[in-house]
Amino acid sequence: MPFSSAESTHLDIQLIKKILEQASDGVIVTEAVPFSRPGPKILFVNKAYTNMTGYSENEVVGKTPRILQGSKTDKEELGKIRACLENGVSYKGELINYRKNGDEFWTSIHISPILDIDGTIRLWIGIKRDISRMKENEERLRAYGEKMEEMVQARTIALADAHNKLSEQYDELQSSIDYAKRVQDAVLTSDIILKAVCPSSFAFMCPKDKVSGDFLFAAKVGTNKVVAVVDSTGHGVPGALLSLVGHQLLNRIVNEQHHVSPASILRRLQLGLKRLLAQGEGEQDIQDGMDVALVCFDAENKRLTYAGANRPLFVANDEGVQQVQGSKKGIGGFLHPSFDTSFKEVEIAVANGDMIYLTSDGYYDQIGGPDNKRMKRTGFMSLLSEVWKLDEIEQQNRVAKHFDSWLNANEQLDDVAVVGIRM
Predict the structure, then answer these.
(1) Counting beta carbons within 10 angstroms of the beta carbon of residue 105, is it exposed (0 to 12), middle (13 to 18) or buried (19 or more)?
(2) In 3D, which of 376, 382, 370 has the Cα closest to residue 407?
(3) In the chain, what percentage of residues exceed pLDDT 90?
(4) Please, which residues bridge with residue 225 across strands?
(5) 191-422 in CATH: which number?
(6) Is the fold of 25-130 the same as that of 191-422?
(7) What are the residue ranges spanned by the domains of the chain?
């Protein structure tokens, strides 16, 4: 059942505010027009923006982004920004801006339109990052490189050694800057909450980078226990924000609205994400989405139900390891207006002592092993057949150790999430 318009609007506003306030990058939202002076007025800035610029929210709301411009702000680049706004397209570039105290600083800027349901640009959103340190380091490296070149004939061996060390330091610095600009915190379910809902359980979470697009969700509604593993597409800030959106939607659907049917939860998650991100309503909409494996265990009636969006469920018992398939479609992404939002729900017979496993695809899609190939689901199921009778702590250790061994010297390809629950 779709959300009412009032529910949807309230949900959209609250989610957007939570997302923007938790972003580590500066965020600014402006009116759509005018493009000529004085320009569109600022409607919202987050805390990261005020920390970066020195201005309070009250000092910038109602003003225009020109408040940060000064004598060294590139006029040609400003012309490019205006051209993009007039043509209704995104802009990405770098500019010198000025803080409230007059200090100049370099910023990277990414401006995108926010479209109304009819495709009309309603607002502009800008993401700003302070890249002053990176620029300073680039200048230091350039100056130092020139100095080293002048000394190359006299100090060839010393220069080569120094260059290698400097390159390593530069790579580490670039990595630190990239990581530091991503969203650091997300309101996601921890393995502690999973244990509170399902005491006989474990979670093996192994992100590819510092921020993971995979997350787990666990909640108890009456006698029903709802657990999900979600694999969000996208990387960096978009992936982290999408994870937060998905978690908040699940929290609202399960904990606030008390839906426990897996198929119903996935349908509402589909509709909520589509409505929030305006997917399928314009050429510039966000095409990222999620793959989900979700179960509900009714402890009173000993009834397990499952629904999946491109993610299977694995059941291990004395009869072996079985794979239960869900629906072959994900949550979100490109959605045609006539797209079927229903999902298949399966009731599974389980007995005390059986194990169920929910996973993202990162574990068994990893390349490695003795033949340097993908593990595939068959290899993963073989592992489960070996460990399912062990206690949950030992299972988690074995799953982690096997992945490390399989990975060997290869680069990890994707985020990894494996959740096991003893029935």
Answers:
(1) middle
(2) 370
(3) 56
(4) 220, 297
(5) 3.60.40.10
(6) no
(7) 25-130, 134-180, 191-422
pLDDT digits (tens, 9 = 90+) for 287-308: 678 999 999 999 888 899 999 9
Task: Give me the half-sphere count of Cα atoms (radius 13 Å) on the Cβ side of residue 96.
Answer: 12
Q: What's the token pair of residue 47?
A: 């805390």
Gap between the Cα atoms of 375 and 398, Å rounded: 16
- Rounded CA separation 382/369 (Å): 14
**Closest to 343 (Cα-Cα) out of 297, 306, 382, 390:** 306
Residue 20 CB burial class (10 angstroms; 0-12, 13-18, ≥19): buried
Find tokens 């629906």 and name the residue: 327
CB atoms within 10 A of CB 213: 27
Q: What number is the average pLDDT over the span 325-341?
A: 77
On the question of pLDDT at 381 being above 90, the answer is: yes
Strand partners, 307: 294
- Residues 194-249: pLDDT tens digits? 999 999 999 999 888 777 788 899 999 999 999 999 998 755 556 667 888 888 89
Whether residue 404 contacts residue 181, with contact meaning beta carbons closer than 8 Å, is answered with: no
Distances (CA, A) of 26 to 23, 102, 312, 417: 7, 18, 39, 30
Which single residue is written with the structure tokens 């998905």?
246
Q: Domain spanning 25-130: which superfamily?
A: PAS domain (3.30.450.20)
How far apart (Å, rounded) are the C-alpha atoms in residues 107 and 76? Answer: 16
Can you tell me which residue has the tokens 């939570």? Answer: 18
> Is the confidence at residue 335, as pLDDT, over 60?
no
Percent of the chain whose predicted confidence (pLDDT) is above 70? 83
Closest alpha carbon to 186 in 241, 235, 230: 241
**Among the listed residues 290, 284, 193, 307, the one whose alpha carbon sits nearest the alpha carbon of residue 243:** 290
Structural tokens at position 397: 């250790």
Q: Assess contact for 74 and 92: CB atoms under 8 A.
A: no
